[in-house]
Amino acid sequence: MPIFARNVVATSQHLAATAGLRMLAKGGTAADAAIATAIALTVVEPTMNGIGGDAFCILWDGSRLVGLNASGRAPALMTRDRYAGLDKMPGEGWGAVSVPGCVSLWVELHRKYGTLPFADLFEPAIRYARDGFRVSWMVAQQWQRAIARLKDQPGWAAAFIPKGRAPLPGELWRFPAQAETLRQIAESGGEAFYRGALAQKMERCAVDGGGALRAADLAAHQADWVDPIGLAYHGTSLHEIPPNGQGIAACMALGILENFELSGFAPDGPEVAHLRIEAMKLAFADVHRHVADPRHMEVTSAQLLDKAYLKSRARLINPRKAGRFEPGTIPRLSGTVYLGAADEGGMMVSLIQSNYAGFGSGVVVPETGIALQNRAAGFSLQPGHPNEVAPGKRPFHTIIPGFVTKDGRPLATFGLMGGGMQPQGHMQVLSRIVDFGQNPQAAIDAPRWRVHESGDLWLEPHMPAATAGALQAMGHTVVMTQAPSFEFGSSQIIWRYPDGGPYLGASESRRDGAAVGF
């Protein structure tokens, strides 16, 4: 059930949520709470994120919406030649490691919006890592699933399966090396990670393992404040971080869906599901062709979000038959883990951080607890593609924090982790709320579909059987999944009441998370 409170934190692991709530109870801002929650998540949910990952956030500071892109770039030595003979980027090992950025988000977000001492925000996470915590059920399942993929990667088995197996649900897990790393980051204000002893350890590990990462790459990294992009959908606006992230796909899909009348249909019926699916497929066709580091894109976000262009794309949808779509001709204009935190002063933070594929690349820097992400796997090896791997370039990114406004006022922090599922989930959940008036908790608990990378349509087991059968008859290649599934993401929402009353905090049942507040 949702909670109602004036100060709220919602995320995918309950110990992390309470870490953030403690900062609010100490008088900190929603930014302080979000940072403490994010730091704690690297300890209590290492299967989904870590110190060596990336992060983004969108924040309502009380008067305006701002965004922070802390994704890392390709190291200077990460040239196209390093991948000669491959047809796609590797998903494991040093070849998949780009510069980690999430620590820079913690530092920069605190610099601008925090009020508590920076080191205070690390206290719960350091205690969890040093003294131990009981591993929650879903995290234990994710941990076990990672072994086959990562057991042979440098440093991973020694760090994360020292007993030769994953920890069991309820088992005590301690990680003193990570506690020490967090202490160094806390006391140095992040300098130890990007310019100090930890940076030197990462470089030595990379040199020994044949990786491209160097201390100079870490020292050159910076998080960037950006203006969120957005699209109005039936009077409610969804905002996302601009490219290099895929959040624009959710906005585009809603812009396409807006051209169809959904009233009169059931929210879980085949008619609505089909239109949403086709809109998402059209959006993905464009995004996978055009979205990259914005310095290398051939089109702009404004061009991709042009309502006339999206209307022209909507005309390609056959309401009774599944289609296959190619990227459109863009009009040339003269132009993970997720968490939300909100405080009674009106600040609202939507933050997401991730190592990408579970523990990331599988590379763990010895005696540090730093599991390095595999975000470089998001690059393309297609010659001339805007997202082709190159030094200093940010890769195409899947993690996307969302934010909802109405009439220029903040309405909700909103996110849904899960790789390519994220924009699909953003679109499905917001459409349920806007088009059918479902409350946020019902909207995030409802059955989901996923357009899989293979082209198949994956459905959750609680999708109505009649809808699944009708979608199959329309030409969709339907794959029914089994519970519990990790393929449909996990969502949290903090909804603000327009009369200035308490927030509604919602956290779904697909993960171990919780919405907490006071």
UniProtKB/TrEMBL annotation:
InterPro entries hit by this protein: GGT-like_enzyme, GGT_lsub, GGT_ssub_C, Ntn_hydrolases_N
GO molecular function, one term: transferase activity
Leader sequence residues: none
Entry keyword set: Transferase
The keyword Transferase is assigned to this record: yes
Keyword Transferase included in the entry's annotation: yes
Database matches in PANTHER family: GAMMA-GLUTAMYLTRANSPEPTIDASE (AFU_ORTHOLOGUE AFUA_4G13580)
Protein name: Gamma-glutamyltransferase family protein
Species in which this protein is naturally found: Vineibacter terrae
Phylogenetic classification of the source organism: Bacteria, Pseudomonadati, Pseudomonadota, Alphaproteobacteria, Hyphomicrobiales
